[in-house]
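Morning, I've got a small favour to ask if you have a moment. I owe you a coffee for this, so here goes:

…
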Amino acid sequence: MPTQRSSASDSTIISKPAAAAARATEPPAALAKPAPLAAEDRRITRSKRALRDALVELIEERGLTNFSASDLCARADLNRGTLYNNFGDMEGLLAALEDDIMDDLENLQSCMQRLSLKDVLRYRVNKKPMPFLVNLFDYLREQGDFLHAIMGPKGDPSFGPRVRDAVCTEIIQTILHERYRNDPSPFVQYYVAFYASAYLGVITHWIETGMKESSQEMALVAMRLFFIKPGDPIRL
């Protein structure tokens, strides 16, 4: 009997530490790497921001094609491995930054696509800025330094047309009468192309001249330009 009690006691003493040791080798599910991943995400975000700011500065100073990856990383105070590991090369970084802008603009479009011509006319009659346009110019202002560099004469000539096709064309489609929105006739297509290019010109001029007007003012300008006719007074 004493021997049996001793054996049972030894079994208990051995099994608990062994089980604890086994558990200690397995990371708890709740702690399975979220903190390192979050830290990694923050590090990548900081690096991307530093590279973005450096890219803007160098484009403004030298032009997009007149500096190297080494120049970019030195300006961002990062090693070249950070650029190559996260973006592949400078072209990959530029594509990622431009795609971020386009993704954000596409998200804004969802608000615009819910508008009807009646909604637009109601804002016009009340002389109030359309909220979508205010939000659009707010966003463009936030990205103003990048857009000034990339859409300027030293930047990427392919980016302006992307903005035109994704945003300006959609704005014009919104104000078209429903019977014209899917009309493939050449004159309708020229009408859309003409006004879409004109609105890209409005955005570009606003950015180039320092974005002095508020987003609300620019939304009213955009609204007025929708409906101004030859011979009308050129005023809001």
User: Anything to note?
Assistant: The longest helix spans residues 34-62. Confidence is low (pLDDT under 50) at residues 1-34.
